């Protein structure tokens, strides 16, 4: 994917510059525009560029730093702060789910459904747990509260070689 920079400043919020986005599939661009619109987000150049990286492929888990590197490799010249802000906006709009795997780094999941994850310590990877995990009992919420979501992260590390 090659997303070319334009002379529009990175902090410009005047909407997408279609000439700056070279995609092999116009249908993919339209899908991303519709996704942003349905979420109530204006399709700015930055949101559209990152949205294409996030939502036009397979389901994935990304960090802000990893997405920033992808954007730079795709010639979408954005600041790391813009990537963080956009990921937070996508999360607030319900397009992503934030997973704090290790208490320091957050992953952003393009699958917003409730599902458990494996966090591979030392490899800095988040992987979906295959179907089969079931809970027989979920705790009751405190009085006056409701359960907003349930996050399950199973931390894994490689066994020492014998």
Q: What key attributes describe this structure?
A:
disordered N terminus, 3-stranded mixed β-sheet, 162 residues, 16% strand, alpha+beta, globular, 4 helices
Task: Describe the protein.
Helix 1 crosses helix 2 (45-55) and helix 3 (64-73) crosses helix 4. The chain has helices at residues 26-38, 45-55, 64-73, 80-92, and strands at residues 2-3, 21-22, 61-62, 97-100, 106-109, 117-120, 125-128, 153-156. The longest helix is centred in the N-terminal third of the chain and has 13 residues, at 26-38. The N and C termini lie far apart (43 Å). A three-stranded antiparallel β-sheet has the order 3-5-4. A three-stranded mixed β-sheet has the order 7-6-8, with no helix packed on it. It has a two-stranded antiparallel ribbon with strand order 1-2. It has 162 residues and is an alpha+beta fold. A hairpin with a 5-residue loop joins strand 4 and strand 5. The protein contains four helices and eight strands; from the N terminus they run E-E-H-H-E-H-H-E-E-E-E-E. It is globular and about 45 Å long.
By secondary-structure content and strand pairing, the structural class works out as alpha+beta
Alpha plus pi helix count: 4
Q: Mean pLDDT, nearest integer?
A: 81
- For the termini, the CA-CA separation is 43 Å
The major beta sheet can be summarized as:
3 strands, antiparallel
Side by side, the strands of the main sheet go: 3-5-4
pLDDT < 50 runs, ≥5 residues: 1-24
Quote the beta fraction: 15-25%
The outline comes out as: globular
Question: What's the β-strand tally?
Answer: 8
Element string (H = helix, E = strand): EEHHEHHEEEEE
Q: Tell me the helix content.
A: 25-40%
CA-based gyration radius: 18 Å
